[in-house]
Amino acid sequence: RKEVEQDPGPFNVPEGATVAFNCTYSNSASQSFFWYRQDCRKEPKLLMSVYSSGNEDGRFTAQLNRASQYISLLIRDSKLSDSATYLCVVNTGFSGGSQGNLIFGKGTKLSVKP
Amino acid sequence: ETGVTQTPRHLVMGMTNKKSLKCEQHLGHNAMYWYKQSAKKPLELMFVYSLEERVENNSVPSRFSPECPNSSHLFLHLHTLQPEDSALYLCASSQDLPGADEKLFFGSGTQLSVL
């Protein structure tokens, strides 16, 4: 099983649509979770951290289910500018106990059409 | 502008060449990273440095050699690469090693082609 798996893309949606991305992770000892956004030919940028209680930032809602090892990202009222690849990221730590081992999923491509 | 600068942006090299990638961060961060991003594959962590000490080397071939002379600079020395090493190489930094809210700031990357 891959360490971080995401929905296969691409997702093609009209403006104004609601779209949800899912992500599962294999390491139950994972400590923290994030969604990053990567525009075409650009570097990844942090979109939001994901907390156990769920968190919202404007049109974006992230949820974490530790029991199921599952993370989600919901985008409401999609904009053209939301078109990008969304990367699920899990911090598992290293075998020696150090933090910093951020494992990235392959990403899910979103294309929002007019 | 994320505060992390990578040079060069593009690099084409032969398999017998030696080249170096440079990364500089202007954010006062303590941790720096090299990631590799190949087409249709997730970002792969290559090296992590915290306070100029290497924390982890994720089984990267010895033809990739990192160097962190100070907390603001990170190099990736390349020699006798293979065509399958062609990829986007991303440098990143964070205040400290990522915990619950630590976020990575990425440079724009070096697109490397090995002929």
Order of helices and strands of chain B: EEEEEEEEEEE
Average pLDDT of chain B, rounded to a whole number, is 90
Put simply, the count of helices of chain B is 0
The chain-level structural class of chain B is: mainly beta
Helix content of chain A: under 10%
The overall pLDDT of chain A, averaged over residues, is 90
Strand content of chain B: over 45%
Written account of the structure:
With 114 residues, chain A is mainly beta. Helix content of chain A is 0%, strand content 53%. Chain A has strands at 4-6, 11-14, 19-25, 32-38, 44-50, 55-57, 60-65, 70-75, 84-91, 102-104, 108-113. In chain A, strands 2, 4, 5, 9, 10 and 11 form a 6-stranded mixed beta sheet that branches. Chain B is built from no helices and 11 strands. In chain B, strands 2, 4, 5, 6, 9, 10 and 11 form a 7-stranded mixed beta sheet that branches. A 4-stranded antiparallel beta sheet of chain B has the order 1-3-8-7, with no helix packed on it. In chain B, strand 7 and strand 8 (73-79) form a beta hairpin. Chain B is globular and about 40 Å long. Chain A binds chain B through residues 4, 31-32, 34, 36, 42-46, 49, 87, 91, 94, 96, 98-107, and chain B through 2, 31, 33, 35, 40-43, 45, 48, 50, 55-56, 90, 97-104, 106-109.
How do the helices and strands line up, and which of them pair or pack?
The complex is a heterodimer of chains A (114) and B (115).
Chain A (H helix, E strand, L loop, with lengths): L3 E3 L4 E4 L4 E7 L6 E7 L5 E7 L4 E3 L2 E6 L4 E6 L8 E8 L10 E3 L3 E6 L1
Parallel strand pairs in A: 2-11
Antiparallel strand pairs in A: 1-3, 3-8, 4-5, 4-9, 6-7, 7-8, 9-10, 9-11
Chain B lengths: L3 E4 L2 E4 L4 E8 L5 E7 L6 E7 L2 E5 L6 E7 L2 E7 L7 E8 L10 E2 L3 E5 L1
Parallel strand pairs in B: 2-11
Antiparallel strand pairs in B: 1-3, 3-8, 4-5, 4-9, 5-6, 7-8, 9-10, 9-11
